[in-house]
Amino acid sequence: MRICLWHGWLLEGTGSNVYTAMVAEVFRAQGHDVVLLCQERHAERLGFVDARGTVGATGVSGLVDMGPGTTADPGRLTLLRPEIGELLPVFVWDEYEAFRVKTFLDLTDDELETYLARNVQALEVAVTHHRSEVVIAGHAIPGAAIARRAVGEGNYVAKIHGSDIEYAVKLQRRYAELAREGLEGARGVVGSSHDVIQRMLEIVPAIRDRVRVASPGVDAERFAPRQRREALGEVAALVAADPDVTRGRPASLDAEVTAATAARDAAALDALALRYDQMAPDPMAADLLAQLANCDGPLVGYLGKLTPQKGVERMIEAVALLPDTRGLVVGFGTYREWFRALALALRRRDLDAYRWLRERSEMRLELTDKEVSCGAAPLDFTGRLDHRYAPGVLAALDVLVVPSTLPEAFGMVAAEAAAAGVFPLVARHSGLAEVAAALESEVRRPGLLSFEPDDGATGRAAEQMSGLLSLPQGERAALSTALRGFVVREWSWEATARQLLAAA
User: Fold this and answer.
1) CATH T-level fold of 228-490
2) 450-470 pLDDT per residue, tens
3) Cα 241 to the chain's mean position, in Å?
């Protein structure tokens, strides 16, 4: 079958990026001929891309055969970058290579229409050139509307991810109207969880008869249990050989974080995040991971975007309440320096700095003066570690915390942690609650892997962490085996791909 996928951004780093990449890889493995429209500029990192090029109003150009990939599958995948100009709209602001970035909320009407029109032209040309039989567009906005304008009503499947709802559709009427246009014209509408579908139905009720759940999957071969020493030793060697680390965050910035915090200079903290490449691992990440490979004590981690909406401070503060537990934050985002400032203040027992961060930042800090004065065990950051490295890092953890405060469509990283034999601990709301309920039901332990996210969540998360870390070794092993078995059985990318094609 000839399948066209539209996705507006990259293929690594966030849930919808990974979702798109994995579905595309599965379609190729199943023998389909796939064309994937997105803005990924590093196809060479992806072993399933056979050719790359660009597409715009005048046609497909610059096609380059990538040669034999790392995966020898019967299908074929061509990656085309739509020619959209220098402006890239996003839901949450971050730096993107070669683009001027604005959030959807900040776009002028002319900027929005230009962006939509150029993508419509690119999709029209790609579908005609490829002779696509199935078109699948990501996100209620802008993908669904782009697909409707490009290929017509009833000729595409729309895929909801959640960020489209929370960061655009709920906040501006023009995006609610754009979502209605795109979703009401779709042949089928797919969401990652019942929760995300229900949230969209409240805005676009007319699609009720064509929605279905297609949970994200997990690559259970990549995300599998491993011994910490072996896993982190291997990842450390890979990161050390990564040429991108030279562009990552230098460790010397910690002194400037401390100085900016002492000066109560919020602008200086914000500016620090723009002085290195957010997409690269830290230069010292390899040494840090090699050190942690030889650490026998409890290790709790966070993996994802470093934004206030992800609740990273909840994990940092909860780890501070467990003095014998080390913390590891893996991720990227322009709010990183605020989270680093928090970790350094807790390590130094700097109550004045903590109070300023609580008053001035977007973080919801909850520790008492006494708790801050007790200090904290080391908490380290690595920068961004993509899916080349994430499986080994996850396998090395004892607990992976997903403390997001914003409604989530699913919580893919929690499922990946369970597949790796690690306990996921998630905030009990939205799609995260569905993930937790499914896993807890499998092991008949309600509440084991989740905590209530409201006021006082830091203490509840720390209590749950402590309980998981104190389980007898035999019980931990049995629970981990059962959780992995459920993920392998129920949440596969093959099942996700089947649901998408069924909707078409």
Assistant:
1) Rossmann fold (3.40.50)
2) 999 999 999 999 999 999 999
3) 24
